Amino acid sequence: MVNASAEITARFPTPVGGFPDSRDRVPSILFAILYLCIVPVGAMRLIRRESRTWVHIGTCTFALERIVVYSLRAWQSFDDGHRYAAGLLEYTQMSFACGYLVVTQDLIPLFRVLLINYTNGPDEIESVHRDPACDGQAMSELPPDDPKRRGRLRLWTFLFNISFITVNVPNLVQGSMYDNAVVQQKAADAIQILRYMATSAGLLLSIALLVWIYLWRDWCWPRPAVLRLCQILMLLLPISFYRLVAMRHYIPSPDYIGPGSQSTTTDHVIFYVLHGLPEWLAATLLITPNTRRMFRAGLDGDWRRRDGQQKYSCGERRKAKKARYEHEMVHTTRTTTASRTELKERTSTSTVDRIV
């Protein structure tokens, strides 16, 4: 528990969104309900075969996690005894720092599918990307097959994906340091450095991804999906700018309500409008439509490092493993039987020789 009333020796980094109070009750409950509304839609998309895809599973998990976060925030707004709970503070700050980047990261495999579909050509759209619901769409506008460009695009999208994963590491570290930041100035300064580092890097990567999508918009197919990616990115970009502004403050103690504390009504409204609302809109645009059909993503997008690489489901891997085991057992049995037969023949021959 962060002791809000005790005198502290460090300047405390202002938590993004501030500490929950009575003004957070309605918006927190509202956002929890909004996320609860899109979760059944996402579940239905995963259950139905024609819309099932694992490409945006990170966003589906994000929506579930946001229900937990806003429920906890609503609970804190009713219970003053847990308003400054260190564990809840660390968890919510890690969640707010990582969540929108997880949604942004889910756009990379979708963008990769668009690029790979385009370079496959009209006669080379491979079965892993084919969707029966989209087979009627015209593919005459696609260029000839280009395997070299396809390989380069797979490499660059892979590096982008790894970069977003790396960016969230400082967010996880800084979120776990809030308890020590109350009494240790080094921990407080480290939080400030790490969260600025992660937010700035995430912003640069998001802008780079948006520029890449815009410059390559004529090399992506199908075209309507490109607009959807740009819409989601434009919704998520203001979150980084808001965080860069909101994180610049320190407060002398957790219960400080002066300037920079993120505790005024205006601060709370700005947080929900510029941080909470764009996240929900982006998740809704990604989860509620038939993403598999829109992006021709198949079940799991383009997962391969090179053309011709095969992938098997868990059931197929178990069957293959069982078949290999049975084959090895048959081979071992035959070898053992042959060895025993050969041994018997040698023994019989030796016995006959002795009798003779």
Give the secondary structure arrangement, pairings included:
Layout lengths: L11 E2 L11 H23 L9 H22 L7 H35 L26 H29 L2 H4 L3 H31 L7 H24 L3 E2 L13 H23 L3 H5 L18 H42 L1
Antiparallel strand pairs: 1-2
Label this structure with key terms.
356 residues, mainly alpha, Rhopdopsin 7-helix transmembrane proteins, 2 domains, 10 helices, 67% helix
Plain-language structure description:
By secondary structure, the chain is an all-alpha fold. The protein has 2 domains: 284 residues, Rhopdopsin 7-helix transmembrane proteins (Up-down Bundle), CATH 1.20.1070; 40 residues. The chain is built from 10 helices and 2 strands. A two-stranded antiparallel ribbon has the order 1-2. Helix 3 packs antiparallel against helix 7, helix 3 packs parallel to helix 8 and helix 6 packs antiparallel against helix 7.
